[in-house]
Amino acid sequence: MLPKILCWAVTVHKLQGATLDKAVIDLGKKGFAKGKAYVVLSRVITLEGIAISDLEPNKVLHKPHNERALAEM
After folding, report:
1. Of 4, 13, 59, 66, which one has the greatest count of Cβ atoms within 10 A?
2. What pTM, to 2 d.p., does this model score?
3. Where in the sequence is the domain holding 56, given as residue range(s)?
4. CA distance 56 to 20
5. How far apart, in Å, do the first and last CA atoms of the chain sit?
């Protein structure tokens, strides 16, 4: 028998301002606009708390100036 764990689903908009210990995140094609990946990924406290169930790479925006800023840190 498998243990039951309480969980829920929310929209990216509902997550704004929230802080999560763990999350399973679907970054797939269906219903996910470009640029929202940052919002949902930044809500989880640690990288270890993030599980990505599906990933559509073109939904994650990448800007070259971000790499320069990270390199300067």
Report:
1. 59
2. 0.64
3. 18-72
4. 22
5. 49
